Amino acid sequence: MQHRIRQAGLLDSNEVGRLFNEYRMFYNQNADIEAARQYIRERMEGHESVVLVAETDAESDHGTDESNGRSLSNSFICTGFVQLYPSFSSVSMGPVWVLNDLYVHPDYRQQGIARKLLQAAKQLASERGVLRISLSTELSNKQAQALYESEGYAQDTKFMYYELNV
Q1: CA–CA separation, 13 vs 17, rounded Å?
Q2: 13 touches 37 (CB < 8 A)
Q3: What is the pLDDT tens value at each position of the chain, 166 positions in all?
Q4: Do the Cβ atoms of 151 and 115 come closer than 8 Å?
Q5: Which residues, in sequence order, are bridge partners of residue 55?
Q6: Distance CA 83, CA 117 (A)
Q7: Contact at 8 Å (CB) between 98 and 135?
Q8: Which of 12, 9, 22, 4 minimizes the C-alpha distance to 102?
Q9: What pTM does this model have?
Q10: At what angle do helices 33-45 and 13-26 cross, to 10 degrees?
Q11: Exposure class string for 82-103: b at 16+ Cβ within 10 A, else e
């Protein structure tokens, strides 16, 4: 099974939106495929995020309709994605990315796809002059923490993270 990672374009928004809907459901949000697709499409149209998509050339077990996981490129199947939000560091006076979303469809986990997505994000960030990528994950998500740490991410020990719901 061959896997490839590429930057998603606007034509991929339906497939990325499908995966994004599944990602949100993983975090106990209600399914809303149309809203998820619209959200992704709006981020892409506004150049508000960078999305990398994982594809595999294996045949899908998901059927043949629009939700079957087929990518618009050739016969590849969308299996995962990472979404990065551009931001800036005032102190460093340069661009940074926030890795907000990383998801691999359950049928394709444990195949190194998440690792490849992280590596591709790092490579693209380096090519674009991004100073660092930051992310957060649930305290209980030990598997993701181990993956991030194995790819060089380090837990921040200098700053506390706060948020305010408005």
Answers
A1: 6
A2: yes
A3: 788 999 999 999 999 999 999 999 999 999 999 999 999 999 999 999 999 999 988 654 443 334 444 444 456 789 999 999 999 999 999 999 999 999 999 999 999 999 999 999 999 999 999 999 999 998 998 999 999 999 999 999 998 888 899 9
A4: yes
A5: 4, 78
A6: 10
A7: yes
A8: 22
A9: 0.86
A10: 120
A11: bbbeeeeeeeeeeebbbbebbb
Measured CA to CA in angstroms, residue 151 lies from 39, 121, 122, 146 at distances of: 29, 11, 10, 9
Please, what is the angle between helix 142-150 and helix 113-127, to 10°?
50
Q: Bridge-partner residues for 85, per DSSP?
A: 98
HSE-up (13 A, CA, CB side) for residue 55: 21
d(CA 78, CA 108): 10
Phi, psi (rounded to 5 degrees) for 141: -85, 70
Listed in sequence order, the residues at least 6 apart from 16 whose beta carbon sits closer than 8 Å to its beta carbon are 8, 40, 51, 53, 78, 81
- Residue pair 151/122 in contact (Cβ under 8 Å)? The answer is yes
